[in-house]
Every structure is written in structure tokens, then in C-alpha cells.
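Weekly modeling sync, notes
Attendees: AB, CL, MP (scribe)

Item 1: holo prediction request
CL wants a bound-state model with S-adenosylmethionine before deciding which constructs to order. AB pointed out that an apo prediction alone won't tell us much about the pocket. Agreed to run with the ligand included and paste results into these notes for async review.

Input as submitted:
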Amino acid sequence: MIPHRRNSHVPGRYNPIGRLNSICPYYTMFPLQFPFRQLLRAQPGDWVLDPFCGRGTTNFAARLLNLPSVAIDSNPTATAIASAKFVSVRPEEVVRTCSSILARRKAPADVPQGLFWRLSYHPRSLQEICKLRESLTRNCSSPERIVLRALLLGILHGPLQKTSPSYLSNQMPRTYATKPGPAVRFWLKKKLRPPCIDVLDVVKKRAYYVLSELPPRTKGFALRADSRKVSNRQVSQRFRWVITSPPYLGMRTYVPDQWLRNWFLGGPSDVEYVQDGQIGSESEDAFVTDLAAVWKRISTFCLAGAHLVVRFGALPSLNQNPAELLRRSIAHANSGWVVRTIKAAGRASQGKRQACQFARKTKRAVEEIDLHAVLET
Ligand SMILES: C[S@@+](CC[C@H](N)C(=O)[O-])C[C@H]1O[C@@H](n2cnc3c(N)ncnc32)[C@H](O)[C@@H]1O
């Protein structure tokens, strides 16, 4: 069933048409219903932008409503997942692509060594993962390859299953990868060994699940860029809607938390603590300046009367007022955005249960807010 533009029902988890959105989880992703409900007010042909797109939830909501959109994020994992939200492909094509890569005789040139890798993946699964990594980093331009890559990112790590496996790794959270030291200590303490998994079997199961029914394709793309500096050459569209959720103040772990997925995308085989292109400084003034730079930059891509809808919160440890911080950043941008409303949006609790498994201390989350501003020029 394809949702009609005026149909206000968000496809729930049991509706196959919404499944592509869950191809790979992402830490701090927001629920599909948030951008979907906002975009019910959009007109046919309105372009939608998310300058902090993460897994591309806003872009998938736009697609469900037949609206064109652009996704921007500076984290390679985010744009690799978001790219898949624009694609239409049949599950058998993805499985065929995977199978033909795995059938190649040549062993992968680069297989990481060391205790973490021995305990995280069975040697046979790791060989297969490395073969796929090598092929997809060399060429990822076709729809089948874009979806296969996102699908593999989604099954790369996650909880061990007693019955049929859904993930390739030893016990791990799904939304972020544990750092090698704590992961090894956890596996040794619990005597957990990596399962021997046939990668193609898991790909097949997942491909037939997430791709069983897709919404019609809409125009748009995902772009890896720093939204403070994105240029007119990179984005030439004019947007009526910006729906987004920036990192919280002090939340600078998106890249290191996705280190295993970033490795699969061609990055190093250990955690890199680089923060190039990421905002989220712990200094309030620097953070406000960074966010303001994004609001200012995107205002140049927006039509007069465009809507900016921001879901935002705060790390419990920093005792911040998210509404105040966001207001300050918009005032600092001084680029025509006028705040119309700020409403409570409830508490963010994503990742909490999984995080607890690996002893990440998560205090009770601060209430999030939804801010709505309009571009008056
Ligand atoms: C709260 S998450 C967005 C999650 C998204 N709403 C979803 O549903 O998946 C914030 C995102 O901002 C990205 N980010 C941080 N600094 C950025 C920058 N300067 N330019 C673009 N993206 C940035 C992070 O990589 C992260 O993916």
C-alpha cells in the first residue's frame, strides 16, 4: 500500500512500505513519525532539507509523501545509510550482487588482525566481510551496491541471537560500536565467542525484509559535507522545509561511536577520535556559533516563508536548557529565521537499553523540544 499524500497515517513497523527506513540503525535517530507529521503540511513539489541527516529519517518521510529532498551529514556512516533511502531496487538484485562479490576467488588484501578482530568475528565471516568491504569501497555507484552497503552496515554488529542470526558480530549494541578495549574485556568476562555466520544468508533474510515493498522514488540525494560550509555548487535546490536534529551540546562522539561502520566504509581498523566537520563542542559559546553558522548557511538555500523545524535536547550531565540554546543560535545567525513556537517533545531514550549492556552510564534524558521558525526576509 502506498500512502496517499493526504493520508496522515505514518507507516508503522508492521507496514512493509516503511521498512527501508530501518535498514541500519543510527545513534540518536528520531522517529519517522516526527518528520512525517510535519511534512503533511507540505505542498507537492516542496523541497525538503535535513542538514544533520543521520540515517536520513527526514528524507525517507519526504519520500513517503512524494516530496524531493536533500540529506547532509559530515559522518560517512550517516550519508552511506541516508543514500539508501533514495534508492529503488529489488531484493533479489541486492542478493545477486552480494553473492557475485563473495563468489570471487581472490582473497581480500586487507584483513585486520588482533584480539578485538579475533573475538568480534568468526574468521570465515571476517573474510567475507572484508571481501565485501574491498569491493564496495572500490565501487558503490549502482542502486544495488548502495543498498547492499547500507544493509551490511546494519548487520555488521548487534546482539547475539539464540535462533537465526541477524547480525555478523559477537555481542554488541546495534546503534553504536563498542571500543575495542571494553568490548574485549566484556567478551572475555562473559566467555562469548564470535558465531560462525554465513554472510549471504543474513543479507538475504534482511534484503527480503527491508525491500519487500518500497515507496515510489523521489528526486534527491545524500551529501557528505559540513553543513556550516556547504556550497552552492553542492546544493542548488531551493527548500521550503528544513526538518532536522543537531547534535546536543557536548555530543561529539558520532564518528568514534560508528568506528566499526566507518572501517567498513574504508576507514582505519581502530577508533579515530577525529572531529573534523562535527559540531558539538562543550563550550556553550562555540556551540552556539557553530549552530548559527548552519542556520545562516542554509537560509541561503531556502525560499522566503520556508519552515525550519528542529528537534533538540541536552545531555543530562550538562544541565542545559535546550530551548534557550537553540534560541540563542537562531538569534546569533541573524539571517531571517523567526521563531514561532517551541513545544515540549518528550524524553529521548534511544539506545538506552543497549548502552546499559556495555556499562555506559545513561542518566535520565532531558526533555526534548521542537522549535518551529519561519524564514522572513
Ligand atoms: C542527532 S543526529 C541526527 C539523527 C537523525 N535525525 C536521524 O534520524 O538519524 C546529528 C547528526 O549531525 C551530524 N553532524 C554533526 N556536525 C555536523 C556538521 N558540521 N555538518 C553536518 N552534519 C553534522 C552528526 O554526524 C549526526 O549524524
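Recorded for review: Confidence is low (pLDDT under 50) at residues 350-359.
Action items: CL to compare against the apo run; MP to circulate these notes.
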